[in-house]
């Protein structure tokens, strides 16, 4: 199903299968929209936290313990926003197995799958009948403003998602769909190489600042920890914005990540270097 951006694919999927009071498990740090969608649907969110010390790898044993009678969905996002983490195949296999054993849906947000710098296993690999895979042209084809995404699921789920989109939006604008059709014929390899080079640059500069971070396996971001230098990520983000540098506060991806910021690689190298110099100067002042 073609949707108005990957966001609407996830929204319509959650709205179509989640009932008030049912639970969704999300692995943090995570894109904040998942929680917003669950709240809107009247559901409850459970979060499985991961840590930089454990290389952002979720504890599947803890995940199993979190599954209860009211659990309906597990949400995955790999390559991850904001950490760039990619799960090993054994971890994905274990999560799918837990979903199968408990009759759960798995929503896999794979919008960054083309930006995978190590082996990536899509949920489609498992042919699980309660899987919903979401992606978008925004990242792979650099078509963010066109708002073209898509969802892959069984016919029953897609039928429900389609009804939600028809009520809310009618459909994705036809010119945008034609643009996406044209983009399919082009390889994202050049853009992927460019993003990887930028991420390497950011990682090098952050290493020189002695900040803790895990080199991303994919996606477009680096998620460094600020150590004892900064007490409030929001204050730091505001200060940087006053100086012309935009980063995302770690707290936006989970309440346990107030000592992190997300740095995007979606700018030219010279601009990234200038921005990182500003970040360094602000951290040094503190």
Percent helix among the residues?
Answer: 40-55%
Q: Total number of β-strand segments?
A: 10
Distance between the termini: 49 Å
Number of helices: 10
Please give the CATH class of the largest domain. Alpha Beta
Brief summary of the model shown:
The chain has ten helices and ten strands. The protein has helices at residues 5-17, 33-40, 60-66, 89-102, 137-140, 155-168, 174-183, 189-208, 233-242, 269-285, and strands spanning 2-3, 23-28, 44-49, 71-77, 105-109, 131-136, 149-152, 221-222, 248-249, 261-264. Helix 2 links the parallel strand 2 (23-28) and strand 3 (44-49).
Model description:
With 286 residues, the chain is an alpha/beta fold. It folds into two domains: 182 residues, 3-Layer(aba) Sandwich (Aspartate Aminotransferase, domain 2); 97 residues, Aspartate Aminotransferase, domain 1 (Alpha-Beta Complex), CATH 3.90.1150.10. The chain has ten helices and ten strands. The strands form two sheets. Strands 1-7-6-5-4-2-3 form a seven-stranded mixed β-sheet, sandwiched between helices.
């Amino acid at each position: 199903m073609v949707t108005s951006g990957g966001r609407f694919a996830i929204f319509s999927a959650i709205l179509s299968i989640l009932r008030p009071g049912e639970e969704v498990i999300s692995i943090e740090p995570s894109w904040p929209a998942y929680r917003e969608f669950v709240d809107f649907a009247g559901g409850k969110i459970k979060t499985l936290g991961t840590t930089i010390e454990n290389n952002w790898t979720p504890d599947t044993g803890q995940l199993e313990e979190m599954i209860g009678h009211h659990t309906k969905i597990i949400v995955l996002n790999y390559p991850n926003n904001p950490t760039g983490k990619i799960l090993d195949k054994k971890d994905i296999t274990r999560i799918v197995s837990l979903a199968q054993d408990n009759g759960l849906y798995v929503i896999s947000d794979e919008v960054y799958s083309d930006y995978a710098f190590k082996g990536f296993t899509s949920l489609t690999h498992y042919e699980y009948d309660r899987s919903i895979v979401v992606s978008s042209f925004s990242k792979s084809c650099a078509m963010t403003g066109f708002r073209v995404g898509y969802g892959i699921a069984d016919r029953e789920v897609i039928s429900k998602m389609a009804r939600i989109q028809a009520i809310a939006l009618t459909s994705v604008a036809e010119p945008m769909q034609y643009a996406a059709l044209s983009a399919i014929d082009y390889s994202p390899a050049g853009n992927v190489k460019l993003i990887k080079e930028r991420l390497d640059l950011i990682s090098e500069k952050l290493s020189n600042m002695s900040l803790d971070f895990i080199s991303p396996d994919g996606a477009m971001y680096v998620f460094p920890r600020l150590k004892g230098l900064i007490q409030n990520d929001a204050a730091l983000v505001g200060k940087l914005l006053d100086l012309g540098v935009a980063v995302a506060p770690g707290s936006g991806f989970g309440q346990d990540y107030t000592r992190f910021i997300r740095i995007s690689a979606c700018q030219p190298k010279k601009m990234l270097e200038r921005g990182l110099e500003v970040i360094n100067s602000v951290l040094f002042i503190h």
